[in-house]
Amino acid sequence: MDIGLGFVFFFVAKWTDLTTAAIWGAVAGLALVVVQQFVKKVDLLGGLALFGIVMMIISAIYAFVLQDEYLIQMRTTVMGLFGATLYLLDGVILKGRYLGERTSRYMFMPDIVPQRLALALGAMSIIMALLNWGVVRLVSKDIWLYYTTFGDFFVAVILFSVAIKWVVVPGYDAARAEDTDPPQGVRAEQ
To answer: Does 120 lie in the same domain as 46?
Structure first.
């Protein structure tokens, strides 16, 4: 569904303009939410589809308010830097106890260190935002559209693969479990 919603944006943008594409993407996402109410056997909104729909609605509002193709292309940079700021603040100040911890719950991998995850996602968001900025500044809208629909996905996968090597610390879950156990010789209250 995530990819299908991306294609809606892509094809409408190819035929019309970015504001119309953003609005149609949000409408398609909302239609998917309605369809999910009637289709119970298949989870259409699993994974990151629901998050993607929320982001498409925010993008549509952003596009509708600004009505400027260049600024619409820059929304990935703006939203990426905003997300990076939140993750980096969580990683540095809160040691990953808020966003890092919550995001790690969606990753079915053992031994993820929430602080490292928050810092890694913040760094990834900065890199992705700067790449989008560069593509918007250096190439045409059509090439940017191909990049934002297809290319940045592969960049994100590569960056995430590199980041996960740093985020996963073997034995982290076991060490954290030991920290919550009562000291030896002390019986837990029942």
So the answer is: no
As a whole number of angstroms, the distance between CA 188 and CA 71 comes to 58
From 90, 129, 54, select the one nearest 62 (Cα to Cα).
54
- Residue 145 pLDDT: 92
Q: What is the DSSP string of 90-116?
A: HHHTSTTTTHHHHHHHTS--SSB-HHH
How far is 3 from 11, CA to CA, in rounded Å? 12
183: confidence class by pLDDT, cuts 50, 70, 90: low
Residue with tokens 């109410």: 37
- Distance, CA of 75 to CA of 36 (rounded, Å): 28
100 HSE (CA, 13 A, CB side): 28
Name which residue leads in pLDDT, 118 or 7.
Answer: 118
Say whether both 91 and 165 belong to one domain: yes
Please check whether residues 60 and 96 belong to one and the same domain: no
What number of other Cβ atoms are within 10 A of residue 164's Cβ?
Answer: 15
143 vs 149: CA distance, rounded Å? 10
